[in-house]
Amino acid sequence: MTSSIPLLEPDPYVVALEEVAALDQQIARLSAVRARRVTDAAHHLHRQTPTDTSTGGPVWSTARVERVELFTELAQLTRRTEYRAATLIDTSTALVDRLPATLAAVAAGVVSWEHAEVIAKHADGLDGDALVLYDTRLAALAAEVNPKQLDRKARHEVELSQPSTAVERAEKAAGTRRIYVDPAADGMAYLTLFAPAPEVHAITDRATRLAAGLRAGGDPRSMTHLKLDVLTDLMLNGETSIPGATRGVRGRVHVMVPAMTLLGVGQEAAILRGYGPIDPATAAQLTAEATSWRRILTDPITGRILTTDPRDYRPTARMIDHARLVHPTCVFPGCTVPSEQADVDHTEDHAYGGNTVPENLAPLSQAHHRVKHHTRWQIVQNGDDTLTATSPAGYRYVIQPEGTMRPAPKQLVDASAATAAASSGAATAAGQAVANRATATENDTDDCPF
Q1: Per residue in 235-256, pLDDT tens?
Q2: Most CB atoms within 10 A, among 19, 149, 157, 269?
Q3: What are phi and psi of 182, to 5 degrees?
Q4: Domain coordinates of the chain in residue numbers?
């Protein structure tokens, strides 16, 4: 007599988990294929021998031109930041050209791309037998630990085999310190410091101690909020160890507020330069505390900022404001550097006949200003506040004028001349005055936008 053993149904939770792990392995295998193709692209570009296209100033090496053209190209095609595109290139070429054991592990689906990035990052500076040993050990370790654990082990492995001293590497790393801002939702933003670890931990410790003192004194705010608030106060109102560095220097923000909104007859959003739309309450607070205003006139029909002819090579202050209002960030594709921190560049080089007019001026971050002049990237104005950027590979990207004000509502356009005239007096004090073309006369130079 035989008996049958019932088959257990697979646990759907376990099945789902195993499918996730299997998909991760497939992603890793594809990442290895991508690494080879990225490296192929780098090698093909190298054979083109792109050279510096600038007509003056320091000349870029062919290697630098190649690198910049490749990561800017890939950043646009893959919708990555340029930093992530450069990391993709560096990791890919390191795996293909220098880390065969790690590449094989990724291709087998045993090691993820995140692990490979860690291994490639720390391999810089290793060569010969030290590199071979590092590659072999780390590829094996990566299959057993997560990327953060691997990072610690990689740093330890490099310390044992690195020809340069820890002091030399620390000095080199300190040369890459930086600060940057990333916008977030609901009027918030991230401020990130990349700095030597001792200073970062000291900053955190000081903020914690100050916050703890306030908390002990009965402040109802949480420790998290207190640490942020005391750091903000120190940055805005404190001093630096550099004598005189903070004397007379105050933090600045630039808010563009439509005059009709200030007058209570419009609903246009206020714009925080370098961020975007902000809520009315915040805008009202900032405008109430404003120490100065600059008036910029726009056409209420089209929303375009009014212009005049140039008379000099250097843009006037109002021309610069115009360029930054039309394009609140650098106009290079994908760039988010606020225009306030960017150069206002002649899109068509002034030396080659480009006029100093708003239609030929646009903000470019210092980095992308150099890219425009030293590589085969080309940028042209289209005459309607849009620009077209053409990459070295021939891809075209249209940049829209994010800051151009929208046309006024029809009911405002149809308002009586008396209402418009009465409004213009109050609008003079506004950050942006919306005025009809007919209100500006040839003899009233104060009404000219530039």
Answers
A1: 887 754 445 444 444 555 667 7
A2: 157
A3: -125, 125
A4: 12-174, 178-236, 255-302+406-447, 317-399
* Lookup: tokens for 288: 């109430």
CA atoms of 179 and 165, how far apart (whole Å) = 26
Element (H, E) at 180: strand 178-183
The string of pLDDT tens digits covering residues 143-159 is 999 999 999 999 888 87
Total H helices, total E strands in the chain: 16, 12
Say if CB 371 and CB 332 are below 8 A apart.
yes
Which residue reads 């109802």 in tokens?
Answer: 220
Whose structure tokens read 């209420």? 300
Tokens 């930041």, residue located = 81
pTM of full prediction above 0.90: no
Find tokens 């010969």 and name the residue: 128
* Crossing angle for the helix pair 113-123 and 82-98, to the nearest 10 degrees: 80
Apex 127 CA angle, 126 and 133, nearest 5: 80
* The residue count for the chain: 450
The string over 271-290, giving b where at least 16 C-beta atoms fall within 10 Å of a residue's C-beta and e elsewhere, is bbbbbeebeeeebeebbeee
Q: What is the DSSP letter of 373?
A: H
- Is residue 259 within 8 A of residue 427, CB to CB? The reply is yes
Tally the C-alpha atoms within 13 A of residue 445's C-alpha that lie toward its C-beta. 1
* Tokens describing residue 302: 């089209």
Q: What is the spatial distance between Cα 359 and Cα 339, in angstroms, rounded to a whole number?
A: 16
Identify the CA nearest to 166 among candidates 125, 106, 221, 108.
125
Scanning 259-349, the segments in alpha helix (DSSP H) are 259-262, 280-288, 317-326
For the stretch 300-322, pLDDT in tens is 555 555 554 444 668 888 889 88
